[in-house]
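G., the chain you wanted modeled:
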Amino acid sequence: MILYLDTSALLKKYFRETGSDEIIARWKDATGIVTSSLAYAEALASIHRKKRDVKFNNDIFQNIIHLFRRDWNSFIRVEVTDELNDWIDKMVSHYSLRGFDAIHLASALIVHDRLPEKFLFACYDNQLLQAAQSAGLQTLPKRAS
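Predicted structure as tokens:
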């Protein structure tokens, strides 16, 4: 199974939150992890924000950064190209999505169309989750909260 992670799903591996156990289990079972190349900036900014908000110690912070960067090198990353921009045009005209959400959905749909394997789109943003389901993707979680 190919597992696509938007940033909200990706961060669940590094921070204990609702959905973390299922993301980690699916991650272990996946034959490939896919995300947008833009998820790097989103995730890194979120990790730094959590350090400021939660005020965990520097050793924990450095460990999370190390794990994230190690994992990042193993991901299949979808780059923003003119082809992806064509998909993004379709996403924003059909769904009311923020910019990065449109990039994640378009990226997932390109990969889904090209790979014959079972495909699962994971995200924890209700609007993006509903758009992914409307676009025909199997999602995690199955329903918006």
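The domain at 2-140 is CATH 3.40.50.1010 (Rossmann fold).

Shout if anything looks off.
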